[in-house]
Amino acid sequence: MIESKSYILNKLQEGASFIKFNSDGSRTEGFFYVSPKLHSLWYNTSKKRFQNSANEFPLKDCQVRSDLRSDTWLKLLQLGKVREQQSDLAFSILHSRGRKSLDLLASDTETRNIWVRGLEMLVQESIGKPYTKITNRWLEGLFNTADRDRNNLLCKAEVYRLLEQLNVRLTTDEFEQYLNQAGLNAAILRGQLRAQEFITFYQMLTYRPELMHIIHTYSESCDLCTCNGHPTIAMICSAVTPVMDSSFILMNAFGPRTTATSFSGIPPTARSNTCNYMTIEEVKEFLMNEQKQSLSSSEVADLIKKFDPSTEGKECIELGVDGLREMLLSDEYQLMNQEHCGTIYQDMTKPLTDYWINTSHNTYLSANQVVGDSSGESYVQVLQRGCRCVELDLHDGPDGHPVIRHGFTLVKDASLREILNQIKQFAFCASPYPLFLNLENHCSNKQQIIVARFLIDIFGSSIYTAEEANANTTWPSPEELKGRIILRGRVSPKNDLSVDYSNEDESFDPDISAVCIELASLVACQNTTFKGFKFSKYYKHYQSSSLAEKKALASVEHHALELIHYNQRLITRVYPSAYRQDSSNVEAVSLWNTGVQMVALNFQTDDISMSLNHGRFSDNKQCGYVLKPAILRDPNTTFSPNSCFSAYLLAQRRPLKLELCIISAQHLPKRNQRDTTPVSPSVKVKIFGVRCDHNEQKTVTVHNNGLNPIWNHLMQFSIVIPELCLLRFSVRDSDKNNTDLCQYSIPFLSMQPGYRHIRLLDHHNRPTTATLFVNVKVINMESTG
């Protein structure tokens, strides 16, 4: 029997009892249900819905995993607390960035399957909805949280508190004026707001005059905007905030298009001759001039019908401010080129050495380098984020079975076999291209044989063996190695006393004489001590060096060109200094600029390096392999990222001029939700790339407005080598020691020109409801090769 979607969702809202297992084997029975608005999962120890409802899990932050596949289930299987035969009753709901889980056992298979299917649908819907619908669901969720007595109404005091959470602070008079302007007469009489009334009220507060500015510009209302003697955006905004004149009219999406009924926040004298919509030809002109998009009239008509929410807009084929907002918030009009983030568009038939590879350091750690747990779930998380090289520190286990251990620390051990099984399940969930397992081998010969057996049992013929590597003279391409596992590690001890090993990672224990033949035969990428560039011509293509941060950065500074040529034939991995006990990260950009393929980062750390890594590998559908630009692959290159003179000579063209206007932001979060003071945001834009391209600029501060601050601030940058350039946007609270509220990084060549929204990320690189509205112009853009 195939249940309908409505049947499944009704079942989830009715709720069901499950046995919840903890990692120590203890268990409790709990009642689980999905909220009426389908936003959240609730968990009670009571079977009454709202009794003791202290555990809420927003579905947008959850993952659903069927069977016995979480960290907890694997531990319980090993302890004998559950049996494999119970797999069809089990599922897990992962939350807290995937590092915690609710591990549940159903009473029957049908119930388990309904819940897995239903939760997967809801999680997917929360991710895939248009941005404005996501915002409405977010507001409904906040409304429900603020509705403490569960009567689906908020009194004025509750609305005040909720608005403070949303960075809005109004006086009593301002509050009453906005209610009147919103036309919420029933709410005024009632003295309370329903959810939809609150959303209407909030949308009026967050009205977008900068979008109306675009419409007026292209609908020939030239008397409005930037002409001398007429209102500018800044003047418009000063009229909009904090309170609009009571004579202004709230936009009615269904009102007649022939009069200026749009709520524009513009003084009547300035809007007497303005138009509140664009025709097909005007939209066509806007797309051509600003967005650099050439569409036919029929294609523009289809676009208007798709995005304008009003009946009259669809019938008259006219784009109003709501339609323009919907269009500019859609995926295809984001700052990031949709081809770059949505498709694998690069040539994937080059040797592996021609790509930057998304690489993790000490993947098993979930915190710092000294304490905490080793977790298989950490591998799942990085693999789902497109990582293509994970690290395994192998040590002898006390029971004769090898373990993952962070030596000489308080970090708890993890079972190697469990972690390998989890890697197998998720190795190719986000990318079809080869996955490197970087082995730091500290095992005795006896337990190395067990390691080899585990690898063969779990990965089988998908392992790219040493024999296959020896049969080639260069690395195969990612396309040729799809679905393959590549082991990287030492196959011989560090026995050359003439070599300084102080800058090498401990990937092999010097007290062990050799790697057993069973394991060595599986290692296709041999970790080899770096003895200097003059010796590199003797290395086989499959030999690879690991460099400590200090040594690698010294090579970047003094031997950049040699390092670029070295990385054209051999794979290099750079890892953070041992002094980084807090799991902070190496500065990755200068290493990428010299062609280093693997810059190993601590994924659990939320710093600028991880933000830039997220930006770098958001390209090429986040598959974990990004083709290095031609200047790093050309065997005759003379390029040095440290020399402005070299960069200008190589470019053989005038530098690009980037004009970037930071217009406005919407729905900025607070770093601390307990703080009732509105944020005072400013925006910093920093250019990362070759030395002569480094630059940063920032806007002025807009005080006490995290709701809809407007800057209209123009920045100009000169870019010589755009192929290596990354931009990082950070929105900061100037009243809180410039604390980052949200951020976003993007490759220069992935930016789209024109008016664009940026969906800002939090410091964990997860999406927020905040957006930044910008205008991008690139002048003298030429082919970059």
From TrEMBL:
Protein name: Phosphoinositide phospholipase C
Alphabetical list of SUPFAM superfamilies matching this protein: C2 domain (Calcium/lipid-binding domain, CaLB) (SSF49562), EF-hand (SSF47473), PH domain-like (SSF50729), PLC-like phosphodiesterases (SSF51695)
One Gene Ontology biological process: lipid catabolic process
Boundaries of every PI-PLC Y-box domain copy: 525-633
Reaction catalysis annotation: a 1,2-diacyl-sn-glycero-3-phospho-(1D-myo-inositol-4,5-bisphosphate) + H2O = 1D-myo-inositol 1,4,5-trisphosphate + a 1,2-diacyl-sn-glycerol + H(+)
PANTHER family: PHOSPHOINOSITIDE-SPECIFIC PHOSPHOLIPASE C FAMILY PROTEIN (PTHR10336)
Record carries keyword Hydrolase: yes
Domain C2: 633-762
Residue ranges constituting the PH domain according to the UniProt record: 1-124
EC number: 3.1.4.11
Keywords: Calcium, Hydrolase, Lipid degradation, Lipid metabolism, Transducer
Highest taxon in the source lineage: Eukaryota
Required cofactor(s): Ca(2+)
Record InterPro entries: C2_dom, C2_domain_sf, EF-hand-dom_pair, EF_Hand_1_Ca_BS, PH-like_dom_sf, PH_domain, PI-PLC_fam, PLC-like_Pdiesterase_TIM-brl
Name of the top EC class for this enzyme: hydrolase
Organism listed in the record: Adineta ricciae
GO molecular function, one term: phosphatidylinositol-4,5-bisphosphate phospholipase C activity
SMART domains: C2, PLCXc, PLCYc
Pfam families the UniProt entry points to: C2, EF-hand_like, PH_12, PI-PLC-X, PI-PLC-Y
Residue intervals passing through the bilayer: none
